[in-house]
Amino acid sequence: MEVRVAVPLRDFYNGRKTEFTIEKQAICSACEGSGSADGHVETCNTCGGRGAVIKRQQLAPGLFQQVQMQCDACAGKGKTIKHPCSVCHGSRVVRESETHELDIEKGMPKGVRITYENEADESPDYVAGDLIVHLVEADPTLGAQDHERTDGTFFRRRGPDLFWREVLSLREAWMGDWTRNVTHLDGHIVKLSRKRGEVVQPNTVEILKEEGMPVWHQQLENNDGLQYGNLHVEYVVVLPDMMDRGMEKEFWSVWDKYRRKSGVVLDRVLGRPEGGVRMPDGEEHDEL
After folding, report:
1. Residue 207: strand pairing partners
2. Which of 28, 171, 179, 269 has the most crowded Cβ, counting Cβ within 10 A?
3. What residues contact 174, with CB distance under 8 A and at least 6 apart?
């Protein structure tokens, strides 16, 4: 029996003890799996307890065949009940909810399988199998409590590394002199900053060592110590849709002055022609 349990990335990072509830088939406790209200179960008189009967069928004049079929009197169980249990109605099993403890360890990988022995569907006729829990990552959502509304809620995970996008304005990317406080999954602050004059190019990725996911102890050599992956921060630069007239004039003046002093024409530098390029016609061909 397999089930999927979704937990937030925060629990994979910090570790957590929680519970989950499933619905499964269980042996009826009222009749202890006998199906009888008074505990008396009798052998079927029709099939003699075998659960099947042999019937003879005529295929043609003088030609017969014997067929084994399920006993209709006991529905193939080989037993009959005069007074069925009022809870399970003689089926010996019921559907009920069952709660299990779940221990999420720090750094557990997504999709890890946790086994609960003999906790699958039950039946009086066989030993219950194992319950297999697939631990998956839930979609990020903003919760009501402070620890559920951190930046880290929207981190993306790939193996031991975490990924985050930080948005910068044009001024911040171009001029620097800014600071960001990114709240991690455990509440600690990761500081991002640039000094004045430090330029950040669009889509630049900054790697912060040991700010990623903890490495699961089972994936560590010698199962020793606590190690962390990296946090990859991608900077996205947002350009203004429009500028007021005064700002536009000031920007134009500054850029025009810089262009006249040290600007270059990229078409000339790259050798791009001003007119079109003549292509060979169908009769001409290049030598191979």
Report:
1. 232
2. 28
3. 199
| Token couple for 212 | 């990623």
Query: Cα angle at 281 between 278 and 285, to 5 degrees?
Result: 100
| DSSP one-letter string for 91-117 | SSEEEEEEEEEEEEPTTPPTTEEEEET
**Confidence (pLDDT) at 288:** 59
Tokens standing for residue 185 = 């999954």
Q: Which two tokens stand for residue 25?
A: 């088939």
For residue 16, list its beta bridge partners.
104
Fold for domain 140-273? HSP40/DNAj peptide-binding domain (2.60.260)
Instruction: Name the β-bridge partners of 68.
Output: 54
Report the sign of the C-alpha dihedral through residues 216, 219, 221, 222, in that order: positive
Query: What separation, in Å, do the N-terminal and C-terminal C-alpha atoms of the chain show?
Result: 66
CA distance 139 to 141: 6
Higher pLDDT, 283 or 47: 47
**Any idea where the domains of the chain sit in the sequence?**
140-273
Instruction: Give the integer Cα–Cα distance in Å for 30 and 21.
Output: 22
Q: Please indicate whether residue 56 or residue 31 has the higher confidence score (pLDDT).
A: 31
The whole-number pLDDT of residue 199 equals 96
Distance CA 232, CA 211 (A): 9
* DSSP state letter for 213: P
| Nearest-angstrom CA–CA distance, 158 and 160 | 6
Q: What pLDDT, on the 0 to 100 scale, is given for residue 285?
A: 61
Q: Which residues pair with 60 in a beta bridge?
A: 63
Alpha helix (H) ranges present in the chain? 9-14, 170-175, 245-262, 266-269
